[in-house]
Design brief:
Shape: flat
Number of helices: 4
CATH class: Alpha Beta
Order of helices and strands: HHEEEEEHEH
Strand order of the largest sheet: 1-2-6-3
CATH architecture: 3-Layer(aba) Sandwich
Largest sheet: 4 strands, mixed
Distance between the termini: 36 Å
Number of domains: 1
CATH topology: Aminopeptidase
Radius of gyration: 16 Å
Strand content: 15-25%
Structural class: alpha+beta
Length: about 160
Amino acid sequence: MPTSEFPLLDRIRQLIAVPSVSSVSSQLDQSNRPVIDLLAGWLEQAGFAVRIEPLPQRPDKANLIATLGSGPGGLVLAGHTDTVPYDAGRWRYDPFGGTIADGRIYGLGAADMKAFLALALAAAQDFTARDFRQPLVILATADEESSMSGARALAAS
């Protein structure tokens, strides 16, 4: 994907381009690992300590916990990496295209919630661990749109 003068927008479009449909139907369900791996790379470059936790029953799916700073407490910015199933025939634009039209960006995850994850990283990337008295954590879970298995695995750990 071309790089523009708007790196946040580029990252949103890169996340949208990675399919990560979550469904209780095995025919529609997809891995979220490509999204997790993309986020992990960006977060590591920004100085975060990154943990990828594969889900016990689905090792092709994972949660990501990225921490900047240390100590108790802190602020958690939480989101999920999966999207709902879709009917391509009902989309005006490619659901994985990140098309920009009429001042909006269109694609699966543009509003819920891949764009949030890119925004959380953009908001945090200029800080360093020493800027915080308590840690900043970015959490990205799997399967929020279907079984909540990512949140369940996190709660069980």
